[in-house]
Each structure stands twice: as C-alpha cells, then as structure tokens.
C-alpha cells in the first residue's frame, strides 16, 4: 500500500492545515468530473483514503505507529465489525460479517412547512375552503427522485464496496479491534452518482410553487395551528413528505367580537324605542335576523339570539349572538322637544338621581358593552 504522506505529497511532520491544502489541490486535479481518465480515478481514491486517515488525529497516530489498516474487506485481518465480539463470545468464525453497518439511504424525510392563513370572522362561523400557494421542495420531474441523469443509475462505491463504511483494524493487547467509519467517497451511501441529474443537481427535488387545497374547519381562532400530514416538502432523493402547518390569524371585525363560541355586539337604541319597545332587523354574520326589544329595556341589558354564534371546532351546536343594549340619550333638542321631555318628567314625577344598591351583574353587562364599543 502506498504511503499516505507520499500520496498527498507532504512530510510526516505536516500540520493538519497543510494536509488539508494538499488534499484540496489534488482533489481538484483528479476529481472524475474534471479528469475522466481511469488513472486519475484510481489516484483520486488513493488521495481520498489517505486524507481520511491523516485528517483524523487518532487514525493518524495509529498509522504513524505502523497500523496501515485497509479498504473494506480487502486487507488482511478484516473480519468485519464483529471480530472483537467474536474474540470474547465466539460467533460465526473469522471473517464473519455480523454487526456490519448498513449504508445510509439517500431518501430522507422532507422538512415541515409553515404557512400563515388570514381569515375573516365570517369564515370562522361555518369554516372555509382555501387554495393555498406554497413555495417548497417538490419531486424533480426529470429524474423522479432518482438523482441521476435519465438512462443512468448510481454505481457501487469502489472504496467501501457498497457498505457505506470503511473498516480499519487496530492492534491491541487483546487482539485486532475493527473500527468502522462512514466512507468519505460516497458519504456513507454505498453508491456514487457519476452523472447527477442536471435539473436538480443530483438532489432528486427542486423548489417550486404548488397549490394545496384545504378545508379550514369552523371554530378556529388566531394562533391556532392546523397540521396537514404529508403536505410539506418532499425529502431528498424523493424521500417522504414532511407536514404542512397552517397558522391561523383572524382579522378583527368592525361590529362583532368573539367570546368562546358566542358572538358579541352592541345595539344603539333610541330613548323612545327603549321606552315603548320595538322590533328591529339586524344583520348577523350569516344573514338578517329579527330582534324584539321589550318596552322599558334598560341600558346594559343583554339580548340573546340562540344559534347565531360560531360552530365550535369540535362539535355541531352553534353558540349564541349576544347583543348589549346601548340607549342613546339625545344631546341636542329643539324647543318643542325639550318642552315634551319636561312635560314627561312632570307627569312621571321621576325621583332625583341617587346612589342605588350595588349590583354586581350591572358591571358584567357594562364590561360586555365596553368590549364591543
């Protein structure tokens, strides 16, 4: 076996930086993409192997002590990763392959994606369908995830012989210990791609915009994240898709606000209507509805319209629409109007303003009203 230092063209006292610079220089000259000759390919394998050993301080120390190691399965004393265990516990005999690591798969799971979805309050009542444009990784249409140019395929790595790992022996007092590390040539895959796909640069995927159709259920609220399994980006080499998460944001409404599954609103009522009562038609989020005000309705009273709220996220029974009454007191009166109010005051003999008994419920009603004001 050629001396690793001679292969890289450095002295045995070379520093790690000198070794790295020498390797990079030779790799640029001998890489198969640059120099297609057979001799260059063999030299590139030797250079890569030499760098794998000398760039690792522990492996370099062992090499300097006379441990030359070898290429997976090709050198004397290579019985597989299980040799050390067979020494103590027995096994399938020398040269057995028990415990040998498998090459890693190029296909890996894709990353998850997050998309923000802006909704109106009306969308939350019944749910809504959306077609979302997502910018993410999709399967390469040229190689269909195979990473190779059409008509070509990966080839078995000449360094690790398809195992994805390089095995080396270390002499010790108890015998030969076999160590295993990922192959530096194939990066542990066991194969190399001589002709990578030009479209995806050998990744098996490309970035593109695609449309995801989704039915957003009723009852969602701001900050909620919906998970769509398998709708995220495709993994390298056509690996499984990640998940897509939708982060919901509900815009504030000018009239209605939400309280759990109920909707809250404030109704301005004139003084005559509050005194005499009336029936009025209001617009809810899903159409008009009639609302009856009884005679003498008070400011702060809350009127409930059943089933005109929000459909819950997990359920079918809609909430209610709760309407807080706000009696509007006129601020400008002409002479005739003022005279009528004064006559009304004399006839009713209303008492002067005074402090009344504390009413806990009154403040709860006022909070509802102010929240919707």
Topology:
Layout: H1 4-8, H2 16-30, H3 38-54, H4 57-64, H5 83-89, E1 113-119, H6 121-126, E2 128-139, E3 155-156, E4 165-172, E5 175-182, E6 191-192, E7 205-216, E8 225-228, E9 244-250, E10 257-259, E11 262-270, H7 271-276, E12 278-284, E13 287-293, E14 302-305, E15 321-328, H8 335-348, H9 360-372
Parallel strand pairs: 1-9, 11-15
Antiparallel strand pairs: 2-7, 3-6, 4-5, 8-9, 10-11, 12-13, 14-15
Oligomer: single chain
Instruction: Report the helical percentage.
Output: 10-25%
Mean pLDDT: 82
Proportion of beta-strand residues: 25-35%
How many separate structural domains?
3
Element order: H for helix, E for strand: HHHHHEHEEEEEEEEEEHEEEEHH
CATH C-level of the largest domain: Mainly Alpha
CATH-defined fold name of the largest domain: Helix Hairpins
What is the number of helical segments per DSSP (H or I, 4+ residues)?
9
CATH architecture annotation of the largest domain: Orthogonal Bundle
State the end-to-end distance.
87 Å
Biggest β-sheet: count, sense, barrel?
4 strands, mixed
Give the radius of gyration: 39 Å
Helical/strand content category:
alpha+beta
* Rough outline: rod-shaped
Lateral strand order in the biggest sheet: 10-11-15-14
Number-wise, the strands total 15
Low-confidence segments, given as residue ranges, are 69-99
CATH superfamily of the largest domain: DnaJ domain
